């Protein structure tokens, strides 16, 4: 079975919103043995959408459209689909009743424009939306099955799982994928450690991608049966883990902060942070995780030298002698933060994020990160490349990674 994914929306074409729906759909279809031929993105233009449906349907077995099913004048997918099918839009009274009930239960008047959401092309089938007001539409054109779904990710995913996937049983091979994440080494070093596992003729295949300092491994298994694909995927995952060891911090949706938070919770440990150049970014990453209040209670942003002295008792003489971007100051910040907070561990970051302020001794990107615990207090200097945003991001992630290795009782391999 061959599929094409068509995404609709001016915000996608203009780059205002990232199209995560197509990536998710491709992964789901691959697992079902459906080959995705292409992704296509179009603006909210009825004639463009209609023309695309007419031209794409004869070239594939499955056309999945997401977006453009809302009630506003710029939501034109249902009208374009009706025109491509040469059928009029007809009112689905059952869905209209559900829409009216939806608004009535919320003590709201249903705007007249929402009525369009209860209309589908004659001969098409309505797909129930269990998370919103826009139903999906299923139709057939030139033996191509067309499924049009809302663009809201939560609504689209639930609709696909409940109303689309069950009808896509195929006899083709099963394609399963898994993503492993690493931090601390560059892509070329990771590839070197993986060696023959990255042979492009290998099945399962292993590829790498880089985003914001995270080097991710994409393992893809293509086999005749789901059981064989799952077995081979697990075996290659184990080989990658053996090659990279603790450089792999997680998989799938796991992040450095979520994995480190899990370790803190498991070990009943707490952490605090004292930040200068990162301006609270490290604390934000930690508290992005639900439940982080069990292991994170407070932090300090001591951006100015006076704040380091007033809030963390860093001696003025120490700042004058060594400068704010130094091992001595990083150590003083971390130790003071740990003692003041009562936390088991404290991370401190002080550096030069740029674009100005660099010197020969401390160029832009120079950052000291310290980690204090009950039995140790150590600091390391890093020189991060990139612009201000990149330097701050790498510094916060490196601090998290240092904490992760500390909790694992391991020496960081970077």
- What overall form do the CA principal axes indicate? elongated
Strands ordered across the widest β-sheet: 2-1-3-8-7-6
Distance between the termini: 46 Å
CATH C-level name of the largest domain:
Alpha Beta
Low-confidence segments, given as residue ranges, are none
Percent range for β-strand residues: 15-25%
What is the multimeric organization of the chains shown? single chain
**Count of discrete alpha- or pi-helical segments spanning 4 or more residues:** 14
- Largest sheet at a glance? 6 strands, mixed
Summarize the structure.
This protein has 414 residues and is an alpha/beta fold.
Walk me through the structure.
- This protein has helices at 10-13, 20-31, 46-56, 77-85, 93-105, 153-164, 187-194, 226-244, 256-266, 281-287, 305-312, 316-322, 327-341, 388-408, and strands spanning 2-8, 35-42, 62-66, 89-91, 119-121, 125-127, 136-141, 144-149, 174-182, 205-211, 214-223, 248-251, 271-275, 296-301, 345-351, 366-372, 377-383.
- The protein is an alpha/beta fold.
- It has 3 domains: 2-167, MoaB/Mog-like domain (Molybdenum Cofactor Biosythetic Enzyme, Chain A, 3-Layer(aba) Sandwich), CATH 3.40.980.10; 174-251, Alpha-Beta Plaits, CATH 3.30.70.2860; 256-408, Maf protein.
- The strands form 4 sheets. Strands 2-1-3-8-7-6 form a 6-stranded mixed sheet, with helices on both faces.
- The protein is elongated and about 80 Å long.
- It starts with a strand and ends in a 6-residue tail after the last helix.
- The relative contact order is 0.08.
- The model has no long low-confidence stretch (mean pLDDT 95).
